[in-house]
Amino acid sequence: ETLNWRALRLPKSIEERILEEERTEFLHRAINTLPEIQRRRFLLYYECDYKCYEIGAMEHRSAAAVAKSIASARKKVKEEISERIALKAYPCIFGYEGICFVFFNGNLQT
């Protein structure tokens, strides 16, 4: 994020900051419920931008096995967030490194 970009953007309100912190906390809690292997692969893929074949090479596994593990982890994170969140009548959006979770009136969409 550049200085020019920050200068053009309006500062976030206190309410927006609090909501953002709550969303981040829910997401991190959901990620922390994953088994160790899935959590590691999920974070390497989404946070560190590793490709499935790179993760597979590090762990001596096939790219397909890693991709399946990451897909399963993503599904578990979505389910965990669905269970933890008290849904409101307005949209609630969670974003995490290329994944977007949208809650609206109790329905989870990606």
Report on this model:
The protein has 110 residues and is α+β, with helices and mostly antiparallel strands. It is built from five helices and three strands. A three-stranded antiparallel sheet has the order 1-2-3, with helices on one face. Strand 1 (92-96) and strand 2 (99-104) form a beta hairpin. It is flat. The mean pLDDT is 79.
Average of per-residue pLDDT values: 79
Unreliable sequence segments: none
Helix content: 55-70%
> What's the end-to-end separation, in Å?
26 Å
Q: Given the C-alpha coordinates, what overall shape results? A: flat
Order of helices and strands: HHHHHEEE
How much of the sequence lies in strands comes to 5-15%
How many DSSP-defined strands? 3
Number of helices: 5
The value of Rg in angstroms is 16 Å
Q: Give the strand order, joined by hyphens, for the main sheet.
A: 1-2-3
List keywords for this structure.
single chain, alpha+beta, three-stranded antiparallel sheet, 3 strands
Sum this structure up briefly.
With 110 residues, this protein is α+β, with helices and mostly antiparallel strands. The chain is 60% helix and 13% strand.
Topology:
Blueprint: H1 3-8, H2 14-32, H3 36-46, H4 52-59, H5 63-84, E1 92-96, E2 99-104, E3 107-109
Antiparallel strand pairs: 1-2, 2-3
